[in-house]
């Protein structure tokens, strides 16, 4: 026969498990904007009423300034054909840009896109964002590197987990408020990550958004690209070769 003490302990444990479950958020589309359907989106951020975007693929990688309302490319710099472009992030008046497997990144002037420097790192480069003080870099694993933008040296590593389980395939990153939003490669989900503990605070489920975008049947045309307009509190998302970019509002699910 089960004792009252055991039953009480079991109930407490079950309660703790329920409370520990990571909350899930759905979405409401607030606005839809045109997006270059040839852009293999790797990185995205919003600053001074302009979108900045990086694209991938050998021979087609670039960084761009894009007018949000029209999708018009206002300024573009192509990367050398032997580099596969990845994430980008601003620090002051510069843009830091990653590449996939070359272990080499570039630094560009944010106004002119003139190259003003470069840096090296070990392993692959995937996503990049910053909080105004340091940079956060993903490499496709369950770890995010915290980098000193002055030296690009690794200050620490964040191990990302959800309910205690490591979360791999972390891709494009965006700093929003006090957390990091991260696309999970080949999924319809964005993780809301605590930058101190690495714990996933919530999942954003964007199932169906690819169909709304008219993403097509290519397996690589997946969700990727997060930008935050801090001034107007707007969240933008898009995907690789999507002809649309969306402003969304999050809705917590029961």
Q: Can you walk me through this structure?
A:
The chain has 254 residues and is mainly β. The chain has one domain (33-252): YVTN repeat-like/Quinoprotein amine dehydrogenase (Methylamine Dehydrogenase, Chain H, 7 Propeller). 9% of the residues lie in helices and 50% in strands. It is built from two helices and 22 strands. The protein has an eight-stranded mixed β-sheet. Strands 2-3-4-5 form a four-stranded antiparallel β-sheet, with no helix packed on it. The chain is globular and about 50 Å long. Residues 1-19 have low confidence and may be disordered.
Report helical residue fraction.
under 10%
Rg over CA atoms: 19 Å
Could you give a short account of the major beta sheet? 8 strands, mixed
Give the terminus-to-terminus CA distance: 36 Å
Protein name: Glutaminyl-peptide cyclotransferase
Pfam family, one: Glu_cyclase_2
Keywords: Signal
GO molecular function: glutaminyl-peptide cyclotransferase activity
């Amino acid at each position: 026969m089960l004792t009252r003490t055991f039953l009480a302990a079991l109930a407490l444990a079950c309660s703790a498990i329920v409370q520990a479950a990571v909350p899930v958020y759905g979405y409401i589309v607030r606005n839809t904007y045109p997006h270059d359907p040839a852009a293999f989106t790797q990185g995205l951020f919003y600053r001074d009423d302009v979108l900045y975007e990086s694209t991938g693929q050998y021979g087609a990688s670039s960084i761009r300034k894009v007018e949000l309302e029209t999708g018009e490319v206002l300024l573009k710099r192509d990367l050398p054909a032997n580099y596969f472009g990845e994430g980008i992030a601003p620090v002051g008046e510069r843009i830091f840009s990653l590449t996939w497997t070359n272990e080499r990144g570039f630094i560009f002037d944010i106004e002119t896109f003139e190259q003003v420097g470069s840096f090296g790192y070990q392993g692959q480069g995937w996503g990049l964002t910053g909080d105004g003080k340091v940079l956060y870099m993903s490499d496709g694993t369950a770890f995010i590197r915290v980098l000193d933008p002055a030296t690009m040296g690794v200050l620490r590593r964040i191990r990302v987990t959800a309910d205690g389980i490591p979360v791999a395939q972390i891709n494009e990153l965006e700093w929003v408020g006090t957390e990091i939003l991260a696309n999970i490669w080949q999924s319809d989900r964005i993780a809301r990550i605590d930058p101190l503990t690495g714990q996933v605070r919530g999942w954003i489920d964007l199932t169906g958004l690819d169909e709304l975008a008219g993403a097509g049947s290519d397996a690589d045309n997946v969700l990727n690209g997060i930008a935050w307009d801090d001034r107007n509190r707007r969240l933008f998302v898009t995907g690789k070769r999507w002809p649309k970019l969306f402003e969304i509002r999050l809705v917590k699910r029961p």
